[in-house]
Amino acid sequence: MGALNQTRVPEFVFLGLTDNWVLEILFFVAFSITYALTLLGNTLIIVTIFFTPRLHTPMYFFLSNLSLIDICHSSVTVPKMLEGLLLERKTISFDNCIAQLFFLHLFACAEIFLLTIMAYDRYVAICTPLHYPNVMNMRVCVQLVFALWLGGTVHSLVQTFLTIRLPYCGPNIIDSYFCDVPPVIKLACTDTYLTGMLIVSNSGTISLTCFLALVTSYTVILVSLRKQSAEGRRKALSTCSAHFMVVALFFGPCIFLYTRPDTSFSIDKMVSVFYTVVTPLLNPLIYTLRNEEVKSAMKQLRQRQVFS
């Protein structure tokens, strides 16, 4: 163990998104605005739901948790990326790299589980509405949220352990703008084929299993909607379509990045930017622009603050 610590690289160097300083400035401005809007939009959803009693339902409880996860998820990578866009040499210490990797997988896995739970919530609400108050009471919702954080922590610990157990004696250049398992283990001073397959199996199993569960839930929902009234179908489709858009935007990049052995696809960086920067901003936009209840609650909250 002592020999490993002596030969371990002290830091990693990011290649970043580009070496063109003009593009770096443009990216810095664009991503700074995107990150600020992400924090503002998701915080606004959390505050609106918290201060609006009629939104204290399972669906909006899960939505507020989704906004919290999006804030955390984007905050793991975006601030470091923005710093790197202003620096010629973009570095991160070994320990900070491992910490970034851990929290990236924690929040990503928590979001995957939460989106799956939200699909189950919609399935119960639409397909068995009479049993909904008993099946999805607040105690069950809290237990499900605790379970998703526990599952995310276990997954992230496994990914981190598989990464940190490898020897890193150089090179130390990561062709990315943040620390993730695939680009980091490429730098290990040993054969990583078996570790890579274990990592892909772990992440891929979670992503694909949850995605199949989501598809199954929505298939059953769509079939059951034939028995609903026209107004019931419209309301259910509005809610489910917003959720399915978020699922597609999040699961698409996840499945692309984590269900195949690591390769040198140049499109990986573009997919990573969408997954870590853009998606957390789109979630609040999708849910607020398509949800009259949330928009109405935001308007009332703003008026209450003005008059007070």
From TrEMBL:
Gene3D superfamilies assigned: Rhodopsin 7-helix transmembrane proteins (1.20.1070.10)
Location of the protein in the cell: Cell membrane
GO molecular function: copper ion binding; G protein-coupled receptor activity; odorant binding; olfactory receptor activity
Keywords: Cell membrane, G-protein coupled receptor, Membrane, Olfaction, Receptor, Sensory transduction, Transducer, Transmembrane, Transmembrane helix
UniProt membrane topology term: Multi-pass membrane protein
Domain G-protein coupled receptors family 1 profile: residue ranges: 41-287
Gene Ontology, cellular component aspect: plasma membrane
Keyword hit for Phosphoprotein: no
Transmembrane spans: 25-52, 98-120, 140-158, 206-225, 237-258, 270-289
InterPro entries registered for this protein in UniProt: GPCR_Rhodpsn, GPCR_Rhodpsn_7TM, Olfact_rcpt, Olfactory_Receptors
Predominant cellular place of this UniProt entry's protein: membrane
Pfam families assigned: 7tm_4
Classification via PANTHER family: OLFACTORY RECEPTOR (PTHR48002)
Family of this protein: Belongs to the G-protein coupled receptor 1 family.
Full protein name: Olfactory receptor
Species assigned in the record: Ictidomys tridecemlineatus (Thirteen-lined ground squirrel)
